[in-house]
Amino acid sequence: MTRQFNNLIDGEWTAGERYTPNVNPSNTNEIVGEFASASAEHVTAAIAAARRVFPVWSSYPCQARADILMRAAQTLRAESQRLGELLSREEGRALKEAISEVIRAAQIFEYFSGEVVRTGGEIFPSTRPGAEVFVTREPLGVVGLITPWNVPIAIPAWKIAPALAYGNCVVIKPAELVPASTWEICRILMEAGLPKGVLNLVMGPGRVVGEAFLASPDIDAISFTGSVATGRHIAAQAVQSQKKVQCEMGGKNPLIVLDDADLEIATDVAIDGGFFWTGQRCTASSRLIVQKGIHDRFVARMLEKMAALKVDHALKDGTQIGPAVDERQLSQNLRYVDIAREEGGDVHGGGRLERETPGFYMAPALVLNTQNHWRINQEEVFGPVACVIRVENYEDALAVANDTQFGLSSGICTNSLAASTHFRRHSRAGTVAVNLTTTGSEYHVAFGGRRASSYGAREQGRYAMDFYTAIKTSYVRA
Ligand code: ADP
Q1: Do 385 and 306 fall within a single domain?
Q2: Is-contact 32 90, C-beta < 8 A?
Q3: pLDDT tens sequence across 211-265
Q4: Does 67 fall in a domain?
Q5: Ligand 1: residue whose CA is nearest its atom 20
């Protein structure tokens, strides 16, 4: 019988209204588990529990708080193989990368374990004689976290860890397609000694569970990662009820390749950024802006490297690219490949693939001779589809790179210090990469974008403090 996984409400593993199967996209005959769906009443109970225990957690001894986060990190490391396999099975990520994501989650908990004791403040002289001014940080209260399916363990980790480190209580709703990884983080934190009610897990659909977060006056802040449409809806609702809000949304990220680029580096970076993780990254490089002198050599080398890519079951030895996460995503990818063709693009690859097990496999697609204003270059696909846009020179490349509603990440491959420096300064993106993929983010520095890609404070590193704490200014006459 398939195992059932319950919600975590006030420290108790609580049965759901109903259970939803978690299907392996590499083999749709395999059910990873059945996961409880929470009702609106469950969400209310979870939020109430978090609110009740907030006075305890926000004044918990800081060493004990740090120790809990560090123990969770140690368990994540110790169980990284099994948790990596679980992530692969629920999301379809190639195993090596899935294990790396679990290790990343461990690093995030380690980092924020240290942040517990680094949450200092500032002291200023007062303009009033005999007084002093203290600027300190306090937790917000109860934070609602809503996470997407494409990064099943690191995104929940980079929201839960700072929320707890800075003294908040949490109610989290993972994406319906990948609840198992978040369920495991919750189990690990409870085993690490987290008091009951500090972290609550409510699984289920956005329209029930997510909406209940928005409707609750007892949630002080919402951190969301997902689509632009949902993010805008959440931000608008949150502003109405004056909840602090942070949204990470889509991207249509440019990678510029200049004539003087190292061809091997440029093509490695484009293959990784465009196709690895099945293109299911908001930081994927989907617009390849290539200068005319290197264009033909770049395209030829890309096609050679693409021919060697192994798309298969995520757990199979040698697989580099797993399946799309589900049928809906795969159909969307294929529809966009058709759109690119109808718009006049020259499509290489891009069809549905059959493998030994039934799954949502797709060949990566490189679309040549595209124009930046086409839909295929303006709308996020979220699949292994990259388009080449040929340009005359660096100035044109920069203009094309910035001509988008999004602004999450961008990259440039060049050996020119002048060009890379100019691009780093003038790219309208939150993250810029030079001779590296547009996709890498590291846990100790800020992550986030501009315009349609992001709303609110940055995530990760000590920058996370700006979202997960409130500032207090105290004037004191001694
Ligand atoms: P995708 O289309 O990639 O699934 P979504 O933005 O729909 O992206 O989903 C991201 C997260 O937001 C998921 O956890 C999803 O359940 C949640 N969500 C979807 N709709 C809502 C909503 N109306 N309110 C709150 N959360 C929602």
Answers
A1: yes
A2: yes
A3: 999 999 999 999 999 999 999 999 999 999 999 999 999 999 999 999 999 999 9
A4: yes
A5: 206
Residues with a CB atom less than 6 Å from ligand 1: 146-148, 173, 175-176, 205-207, 210-211, 214, 226-227, 230, 233-234
Q: What is the pTM of this model?
A: 0.97
CA 174–ligand 1 middle distance (angstroms): 9
Tell me the average pLDDT across 329-336.
98
In a domain, 439, yes or no: no
In ligand 1, the atom with minimum distance to the C-alpha of 231 is 6
Mean per-residue pLDDT over the chain, rounded: 97
Contact 202, 126 (CB under 8 A): no
- Assigned token pair, 202: 């409510």
Statement to judge: residues 220 and 311 lie in one domain: no
33: how many CB neighbours lie within 10 A of its CB? 18
Q: Does the pLDDT of residue 200 top 90, yes or no?
A: yes
Question: Position 140: which residue type?
Answer: L
3-state secondary structure of 392: coil
* Domain match, 268 and 380 both: yes
What band does 478 get if pLDDT is binned at 50, 70 and 90?
Answer: confident
pLDDT of 453 above 90:
yes
Domain count within the chain: 2
| Per-residue pLDDT tens digits for 107-139 | 999 999 999 999 889 999 999 999 999 999 999
Which tens digits make up the pLDDT trace of 161-183?
999 999 999 999 999 999 999 99
User: Crossing angle for the helix pair 263-275 and 292-307, nearest 10 degrees?
Assistant: 60
- Shared domain for 341 and 326, answered yes or no, is yes
Both tokens of 254, joined, read 């440019």
Please report, for the domain that includes residue 302, its CATH number. 3.40.309.10
| Strand blocks (E) in 346-403 | 346-349, 352-353, 361-362, 365-368, 385-391
Residue 243 sits in the same domain as residue 259: no
User: What is the 3-class SS of 377-442, one letter each residue?
Assistant: HHCCCCCCEEEEEEECCHHHHHHHHHCCCCCCEEEEECCCHHHHHHHHHHCCCCEEEECCCCCCCC
Where in the sequence numbering do the catalytic residues fall? Answer: 282
Of 119, 218, 217, the closest CA to residue 472 belongs to: 119
